[in-house]
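S.,

As promised, the NAI run. Input:
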Amino acid sequence: MTQPATSTKTRVTALPGDGIGMEVFDATRRIFAAAQAPVEWELAEAGAAVFKKGIPSGAPRETLDSIAKNGLALKGPLETPVGFGEKSANVTLRKHFELYANIRPVRELPGIKTPFTGRGIDMVIVRENVEDVYAGIEHMQTPDVAQCLKLMTRPGCERIIRAAFGLALAENRKKVTCATKANIMKLTEGMMKRVFEQVGPDYPGITRDHIIIDNCAHQLVIAPEQFDVIVTSNMNGDIISDLAAGLVGGLGIAPSANLGDHVAIFEAVHGSAPNIAGKGLANPTALLSAGIMLLRHIGAFEAAATIEQALFITLAEGENLTGDLSPRGHGVGTDKFVGQVIDNLGRTSNLPSRVYSPLTLTPWPDLTAHTEPTSRELIGVDIFIESDLSAAELGSSLTQIAEGSQLRLDSISNRGVQVWPATGGHTFLVDHFDCRFMLKAPAQGNPPQGIADLVKAIGSRHSWMHVEKLQRFDGKDAFERPQGES
Ligand code: NAI
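Predicted complex:
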C-alpha cells in the first residue's frame, strides 16, 4: 500500500516459536505482505523443538547467526519444556545479544474495554534487561541461607537511561520518570537514580522526575495517564510492565522490543497459549504490534502507520475480533480477523498514530568499563561466617581472634540487622553472620597482610563463606551500614 513493491526490503529473522507462534506469525506475515511492508523474512528455529533436539540453550547456532547477520528478529512465544534443558531460550537470546533495553509500549487500544477505558493511557516502560538480580548470580551461603547478587553498574544505568530519553525524543514524548527503590538500596537502585540526575540535563526539552517504585505501582493504578516514559531496573520493570499491560487489556495484546547496540528483537509478550494452539483462534495483535514497532525501528514509518491504523479500525469496529477480545464471546478465528485488518489497510482511524522518528541508542565502547577513583582507601572487611553460636558468643570469639592483629571487630549483623554489640532489639538469627572488622590504620594500595592473616585465623575456628572489602572511593563510603548501627 505504502511502499512501492520494488523498494529495498530489510531482511528480518522470523522466530515463530511454539504453540500459537506460527499462527500469529503467519497472520503478521500476511498483513505485512498485503501492506507491502518493506521486510523479507528468514525463518529460524528456537524454543521447544530445539530443546527436544538436545540443544540446551533453546536457540541453535544457525538461529544466532541469522539474527547476528540481520540484526533484527521478530519472535513468537518460546516454551521451555520441562525436562529439556533448564535455560529459557528468551533469556539466551537476550543475554547472547546483550539486549539491554526492553521497551514496552502501553496504550489504550480502541475497542478494548477495560476499567481504565477513556483515561488516555499512553506510556512506554523502558526496563533494563540484563543486569540486577536477573544476572542469576546465586549461591547457597549455608544450607538455610540463599543469596542472589544484585549487580547494577554505572554504564548499565547510563545506557538504559539514555535509551529512555532517546525514546522520548523519538516519540515526541515530554516526560521521563525514573522509578527506583533508592530509599532502601542506596548503592544499587540509588545508582540508577544518581545517574538519572546526572544524565537528565543532557535532554533539556524533557521533564524528568523520580518516583519510588512502590508508589509508581500505586500511581499506575490510581492515575496511569500521568506517565509518559518510565525507566527502571530489571526486576522493577518486569513487574510494573505486566501491571501496566493489565491496564489496557492484558498481556495477550502487548508487544515489546529488546534492543541492543547490534541487534533488536521484537516480540509478543504472551506465551504459546497451548489451550488454543492449532485451532485457528489466536489473536495476532501482539505480534503484529511488535512488527509495527520493528517497522518503525527500520524507519518504515509509513507502512507502520498504515498497518497500525488498519488494526485500530478493526479493533474499534469490533465486528471481527478474536474470542479473547470479543465482548459478546462470539469471536472469529485468526483468519477472519486478519482478513478484516487487510481490508482496512488504507483507512484512517480517529486515533492517530504518534509522530515517530528513529530511536538511536548511544553505542557503548567495546572495552571493559572501568573508572578509577581519585582516591581509594581500604578501611576494613566484612567476613561472612556460618555459625550456630549466639551473637554474644561469636562476638567474644572473634574479638579474641582479632586481638593483636591489624583489625578490630566493629560489629556483627544478621540479615542486615546489627546483633553485636547488642542494640536491645529482638532479631531472629540464622547461621549467617556478617562480621565487620575495621583496620586500625586505613590502607592504600594492596590489602595489608593483616587481612589475609585474620581470615586464616578465623578459618581455623569458624566457617566463613565470603569476604567483602570495605572501601572509600573519593572520600565516600562504598558500602552500607547495617540497620541499628549508629
Ligand atoms: P500464555 O500467554 O500462553 O496463556 C495465558 C492465557 O492467555 C491463555 O488462556 C491463552 O489462551 C491466552 N492467550 C495468550 N496469548 C493469546 C493470543 N495471542 N490470543 C488469544 N489468547 C491468548 O501463558 P502461559 O499459559 O502461562 O504459558 C504457556 C507457555 O508459554 C509456557 O511454556 C511459557 O513458558 C511460555 N511463555 C513464553 C513467553 C515468551 O516466549 N515470551 C511468555 C510467556 C509464557
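The mean pLDDT is 93. DSSP finds 13 helices and 18 strands in the chain.

- D.
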